Amino acid sequence: MQDKLDALVAEALQAIKACRTGNDILNARAGYLGKKSVLNDLFSKLRNLPPEERPAFGQKINQARNQIEEALALSSEEVKKAAWEKQSSAAAIDLSMPGQSLARGGLHPLTLVRRQIEDVFVSMGFQIAEGFDIEDDFHNFDALNTPADHPSRNLADTFYLENGLLLRTQTSTVQIRVMEKYPPPIRIISLGRCYRNDKPDPTHLPMFHQVEALVVDEGISLADLTSTLQQFAQIMFGAGVRSRIRPHFFPFTEPSAEMDISCVSCGGTGCRVCKYNGWIEMGGAGMVDPNVFDAVGIDSERYTGFAFGLGIDRIAMLKYKFPDLRILLENDLRMLRQFK
Predict the structure, then answer these.
(1) Domain boundaries, given as residue ranges, for the chain
(2) What pTM was estimated for this model as a whole?
């Protein structure tokens, strides 16, 4: 068995010396140290030796294993070094050649519009408030004076989760949380994602972005609301843009209105974008309903306020003249490269 062991070591060292690639090293390791190797087979035959010879021969087998492992490690380093030298010489760098410039990224158009909106309202004295994408019925519906049978509370319109939670349908939820925590005067905007069970089409998405504004103080009137909306529209779309509000109904405002701006594509003369009526709907607005104040513990006899919600996606669509809202979510590099 000793002669067989010496021959095995000599054979292994010769085979390892001939290795030229990483795969050769792996094959040699499996062949001489693996479970089915001759060396491993010698371990299993130790029981055939007399008891007094087993320790000495077992030690020799371990020495042989260590010798093969050292040879494998040394050969592996030599193979890696040779591969590195070959690769380096084949891909030699000419330091006199100009380097390759990396493509420069840019902000997504929704991010650009969001930051512009923040700048506009901060310059008007508003503070930015943040809320949660996951809300409860009270903050999303009850505190906003939305009755239990309102269509927006239907499973077909709202994404409900477990334990009475849901994905917020509007950033108005932030209004409630701010009014619960802070007394008037309040002047805040909240921006973020909202979710409604809408089928995606050129003007609707199941996940969209909204900016909500809330002002609460003594003596706030509808005139304050209209002037704020007009100033915002002119800063975002240009001094020539006109705005108007039309009577509407929302559970959380009274009176309620919808805001329109003159079409940014045709200047109000009529085109496909505005459906040839010269106006484009921007969002809902109105004076805060006293019931909302009562739900958060604000004296509705002393304080009044206004609120409005505008679609950030719609603003981006108008500002950059996108034909379809879905373009904003497709990650098309041809579109994104325009905003570097």
Answers:
(1) 2-90, 109-339
(2) 0.68
